[in-house]
Recover the amino acids of this structure.
């Protein structure tokens, strides 16, 4: 493995993940609504989605996606519809006894939601298609490099999204009004859905 390339990949991938986008907004919204303990498994969902991106791209299947951009369009709309549903659920949820239920949302659901949002985010796929092949050296074992890049990307994803969730959890303490929190997270979900539909990738 060319460690110089691995280091450059780490810098490039960290920059790509850390820049706020649909995944970051979703992670922040989840942490605001449900708290860190419940939401943290969502970071694992983002990490697993990163592994799927890497596996697809590095196995050569990514060429199929590259040549058939309509696949990304379908993913974009699936993700937007799902996020719109989450936005409506959050925005119109009533304060009171239901808040306790919201606070006790399943960590498994947080994991699944984050995984699905990341997989249906065309920006993630395009970034993966452009990034991974650029850091493969012809002078070393392809499989070794593929594993090293994938593991590095997973660790970076877990760290970045976990960090955003932690910061959002700290900001959450400033809100005493659960209804206001629901409205804020609903708006964030809606903005992410619009970004998936309207922004070019």
């Amino acid at each position: 493995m060319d460690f110089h390339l691995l280091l450059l990949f780490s810098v490039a991938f960290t920059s790509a993940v850390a820049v706020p986008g649909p995944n970051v907004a979703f992670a922040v919204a989840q942490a605001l609504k449900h708290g860190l303990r419940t939401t943290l498994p969502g970071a694992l969902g983002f990490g697993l989605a990163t592994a799927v991106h890497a596996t697809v791209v590095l196995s050569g299947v990514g060429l199929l996606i590259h040549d058939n951009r309509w696949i990304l369009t379908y993913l974009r709309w699936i993700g937007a519809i799902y996020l719109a549903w989450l936005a409506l659920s959050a925005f119109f949820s009533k304060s009171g006894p239901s808040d306790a239920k919201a606070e006790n949302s399943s960590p498994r659901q947080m994991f699944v939601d984050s995984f699905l949002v990341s997989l249906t985010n065309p920006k993630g796929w395009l970034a993966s298609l452009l990034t991974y092949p650029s850091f493969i050296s012809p002078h070393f074992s392809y499989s070794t490099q593929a594993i090293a890049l994938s593991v590095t990307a997973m660790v970076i994803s877990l760290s970045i999204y976990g960090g955003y969730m932690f910061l959002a959890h700290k900001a959450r303490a400033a809100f005493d009004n659960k209804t206001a929190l629901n409205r804020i997270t609903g708006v964030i979900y809606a903005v992410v859905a619009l970004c998936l539909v309207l922004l070019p990738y």
In short: The CA atoms of residues 106 and 166 lie 18 Å apart. The chain has one domain: 35-198.
